[in-house]
Amino acid sequence: MNPEEKRLAELTSAVRDGVATEAEKEELVLYSDDDPEVLALVKQVDEQREVGGKWLARAEADRRMVAAENSPLSQIEQRVGVGLMVGGGLTGFLFFPPALLVMLVGAGVLTLSVLRVKLKTAGEDPYDDVEQ
Q1: How many Å apart are CA 54 and CA 102, to the nearest integer?
Q2: What DSSP string describes 78-106?
Q3: How many Å apart are CA 52 and CA 18, to the nearest integer?
Q4: What local confidence, expressed as pLDDT, does residue 53 receive?
Q5: In this predicted structure, what is the pLDDT of residue 55?
Q6: Could you report the per-residue pLDDT of 63-120, keeping only the tens digit for each?
Q7: What is the pLDDT of residue 131?
Q8: Per-residue pLDDT reduced to its tens digit, 32-60
Q9: What is the sign, positive or negative, of the torsion defined by CA atoms of 11, 14, 16, 22?
């Protein structure tokens, strides 16, 4: 392998790994002017980086959404809401009006919990731009 091919391999590796400086990227583009294979490689690396970047952004947004949904406050809200609804339903045959009110409060707590999580993660859904 001659020094030019070795340098080209180093540049493509650096660009693929995302550690290339702007000067190295420009140098790789200069190599691509002379060789159509290098031009194809530059395009391929750019496409892979673009796809990888989108995938990482989506994974990070998913992680934030799951963290918001599974936060201790959300879990407490969900347990209290379900407890109130179940408790109101079980005591409904004995004390109808108060039990109905307890069930409605439980449903309200669950609804507010879902709304709070949705508002907290609003605008962060990376899948909004996905076309079906």
Answers
A1: 45
A2: HHHHHHHHHHHHHSTTTSHHHHHHHHHHH
A3: 11
A4: 63
A5: 67
A6: 888 888 888 888 888 888 988 888 888 787 777 788 888 888 899 998 988 898 888 8
A7: 64
A8: 666 777 677 777 767 776 666 666 667 77
A9: negative
Write out the two tokens for 91: 């005591």
Could you give the angle at which helices 22-34 and 36-69 cross, rounded to 10 degrees?
140
**Counting every residue, how long is the chain?**
132
DSSP string, 11-71: HHHHHHHT---HHHHHHHHHHHHH-HHHHHHHHHHHHHHHHHHHHHHHHHHHHHHHHHHTS
CB count within 10 Å of CB 85 equals 19
